[in-house]
């Protein structure tokens, strides 16, 4: 069973999110100069390094621009180019978990239709590691094996966009799992369902793969 602990975002991510909200709500206009670092430090109650990291995040997203010797200016909210990996770092846990669940069901269905023998071998390997790690209460190894198992399913879907999305989500998912689980009990309980999922994919049974993936997700939510 997963605990309802939600990992804290870094201070820089939190400041970046608040600044972005202020900009999108009109507190700062396009072309306007952002307050200088000491003012921002006082406003948010954080240090200089945190402010600089937050500004870097928003510069990378296209929301701010830095002019050497002049200051930091609002670039505008149109066409923000925030990388997905950065967006996921400040994502709400429940939002991210919901999207990941949708992905897992779809990739299971697609994998059942498109998997190769090589894909099955990769899935079987990680499922074995998952089982061994779970019974030895090796939490880190178990989480890695679980994520690698589902990533192998994503690859087997033969949809590169789905696979890339799942891989991007998995980076943050691992961090959440490390906080949400204190031991491998939940992994032991769901081992049978994961083995059923592998068998349905092996049998090219898309409906059963979909339903089994949904059962795994339902167990996590308990």
From TrEMBL:
Positions of the HTH gntR-type domain: 9-77
Keyword Transcription regulation: yes
Database matches in Gene3D superfamilies: GntR ligand-binding domain-like, Winged helix-like DNA-binding domain superfamily/Winged helix DNA-binding domain
Membrane-spanning segments: none
UniProt GO molecular function: DNA binding; DNA-binding transcription factor activity
PROSITE patterns according to UniProt: HTH_GNTR
Name of protein: GntR family transcriptional regulator
């Amino acid at each position: 069973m997963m605990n309802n602990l939600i990992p804290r975002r870094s201070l820089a991510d939190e400041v970046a999110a608040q600044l972005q909200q202020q900009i999108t709500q009109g507190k700062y206009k396009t072309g306007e100069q952002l307050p200088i670092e000491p003012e921002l430090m006082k406003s948010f109650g954080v240090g200089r390094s945190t402010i600089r990291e937050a500004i870097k995040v928003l510069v990378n997203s296209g929301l701010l621009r830095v002019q050497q010797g002049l200051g930091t200016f609002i670039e505008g909210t149109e066409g923000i180019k925030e990388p997905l990996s950065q967006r996921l770092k400040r994502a709400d846990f429940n939002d991210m978990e919901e999207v990941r669940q949708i992905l897992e069901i779809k990739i299971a269905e697609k994998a059942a239709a498109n998997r190769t023998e090589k894909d099955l071998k990769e899935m079987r390997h990680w499922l074995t590691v998952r089982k061994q790690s779970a019974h030895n209460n090796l939490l880190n190894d178990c989480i890695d094996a679980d994520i690698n198992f589902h990533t192998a399913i994503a690859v087997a879907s033969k949809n590169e966009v789905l696979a890339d999305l799942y891989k991007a989500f998995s980076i943050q998912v691992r961090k959440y799992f490390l906080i949400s689980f204190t031991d491998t009990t939940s992994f032991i309980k769901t081992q049978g369902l994961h083995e059923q999922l592998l068998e349905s994919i092996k049998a090219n049974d898309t409906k059963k793969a979909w339903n089994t993936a949904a059962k795994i997700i339902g167990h996590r939510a308990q």
